[in-house]
Every structure is written in C-alpha cells, then in structure tokens.
Amino acid sequence: MKEIEALWNEVRDLSLGNSSRVERLESPPTPLEFLRGFVSPNKPCIISNAINHWPALCSWTNHSYLMHVLSSSSVSLHLTPNGRADALVPLDNHELQGASPPSASSFSPETTASSSSLCFTSAHVERMPFPEALSLIFSGGGDCSSNQRFVAYAQQQNDCFRSEYSALADDCDPHVPWASEALGCIPEAVNLWIGNQHSQTSFHKDHYENLYAVVTGEKHFLLLPPSDVHRMYIREYPASHYRYSWDTGEFTLELEKPTRYVPWCSVNPYPSPETKDDEMSKFPLYFNGPEPLQCTVKAGEILYLPSMWFHHVRQSSDERGCTIAVNYWYDMQFDIKYAYFNFLQSLHYRSALKSTSSEDLHEDSDIF
C-alpha cells in the first residue's frame, strides 16, 4: 500500500514542518499554546527553563542528600543482566513446551511467528532500603570487573514518586501547571527513574500524554509517530521474568504460568554488527523507511511525548554516574485520533519495501 507509506511522510511534515528536529521551546508555553500547538496535533516538543525553580536540580546531584532524605524509605529495584527490562529475550524452544498459543482473536498467525524463539521479559524486582538500592545502581553498573553481574535501575512506575519516593515531594512540582490546565486534569501517575548509562528501554508506546523531566544526566530518545505502527512489527510474545540469585550471582528466565502473551515491538534499532544484516532483513519497513526522530533531553529540560508515539530510550549519566528523571502521565483523550490509530493498525499491509528472506516476505504480507 503506497498510501500508507505516503502517510509516514505526510505525518512527519505535519509534526516537523520544514525541520527534521523536534521543536524546542526556550520557555514554557501558555496552556492554550501547548494545547493548540502540540497536544491537538499530537506533536512532540522539548521545553527549556520549565523546571529551573525545582530544588531537585541542585539537591539531587548530591547523593548523600538522597541517602539522607530517603534513609527510611523502602523502594523497588529492577535487576537485569544487561540493562534491558521489558524487552525481547531469546528463549529456547523447549522452554515453551506446554505454553498455550495466543488467542486467535488478538493477532494473525503471522504476528506470532517469532514467539518460538523470543519472549517478553520483565526485570527481577527486589524491595530494599533506598541507600542500598542507590549503592547497587552504582556498583552493579554492568562492570565486568564487579562481582555483581547485573544492571540495577529504579524504574517501578505505578505512581512510585508519590508512594515510594514521597519524601522527595517538596523538591519538584506535583504536576506541570501549564500542561494540567491545557489537558484539563492532573497527572494520573508521577514516576521517578534512577539509573546509569547501561539501562535502556525498548520501543513501545503509552496511552498517556507524557511530560518527561530530566533532572541529572541526559536521555536519548528515538521517536516514531503512531502512523508508523506497521514499521514496529508488533507481535505477541510469551511473558516471562528474570529471577536473580544473590547466592550464585546468576539470572534464570521463567515463563509466566498460566501463559500470557504480550504484544510488543519487534524492532531493535541498535543491532550489533553481528546481527545487523539479519535484523535489517527481518524488519525492512523500519530500517528502509523514514528515519526516526532523534532528540536528547538534557538536565533541566522537559520532553512532551504525545500519547501513542513509539519511543526507544537510552541514557547518559552525569559526572557522578547517575541519571535521574521524573515523568508525569496524564490520561489521553480516547477521541477520534484513537479511533484512527485502531483503524490503521487493523489494516493488512503489503509493503513495497521487501526483505531478502522468503519467510520474512510471507510475514511482511500481513503486518498489523
């Protein structure tokens, strides 16, 4: 369908105009400017000088301050062998024996073709005192010389800032005033993220209007609009989770029982040199289509990430080896945009961008 491929470029023209970059604002917009210029057209932007008044910008760079304020707080720490949680991980075929197939009503058979070798994997989650968690974020760090063979990331979500980290409430705003007025509500959830340069988040989308404020370090985003849904090769994968043994220092992978399937983006935008040719062959719509938008959000800046935009996130630590961010999730409006997205996703799509594998050619003929 050449019409869908034309849509990819048309949406970029609407979102970016004559620029190839995410628009930057040097000061916070008025609620009306934000609503008209960005929320209504579903257009991302980066806002500078919006959180200069936060005490967090100064105090959170001091880790002894965080240790003191959160000394009696228990938090959820997420552990993975490589910094990739909520991601696709290879799974031996024998581990899938006995797993029930996904329901036929959710996705076509082609969309589960790779489920026999990959699974959607969540991190091992451990509750512990915050001072211990922060120490593990630094000492784990993916350093091969360390005795700890994991990457630790405080990424609980689920409104964790207003629960696990409530002692820090006075250090930043409870909501983003101009966004709350424009959207007509306060955030449904406020989350805190503390990690290092080894943590990253695979391509996914959220049904929230996302205001993402970076406090220390930098966040590096790849962005694709909802209209590029076919380029993400969304397929259903069996759900699993890591289990970490403190005794052996090893991870095991455990499938959920009863079997649950998760629709997830199949594309890894940063394949290794050894797998690059294979990845490009499997996912030509992504690698041969329009480039994703790239942006870096620095300390003191806010990214407005519109609902249903696909995003992949990597991060760079500050000089102390840490990246901290707060994000605000506002409920999206389930309006005509949502209906259009569901309609587009339902279309069977045959691409003019062909892969080199006969198996992938078959899969490419019925992408949802």
UniProtKB/TrEMBL annotation:
SUPFAM superfamilies: Clavaminate synthase-like (SSF51197). InterPro entries: Cupin_8, JmjC_dom, RmlC-like_jellyroll. Gene3D superfamilies: Jelly Rolls (2.60.120.10). Belongs to the JARID1 histone demethylase family. Residues 152-345 form the JmjC domain. PANTHER family: BIFUNCTIONAL PEPTIDASE AND (3S)-LYSYL HYDROXYLASE JMJD7 (PTHR12461:SF99), HYPOXIA-INDUCIBLE FACTOR 1 ALPHA INHIBITOR-RELATED (PTHR12461). It holds the Pfam family Cupin_8. The lineage of its organism: Eukaryota, Viridiplantae, Streptophyta, Embryophyta, Tracheophyta. This is JmjC domain-containing protein.
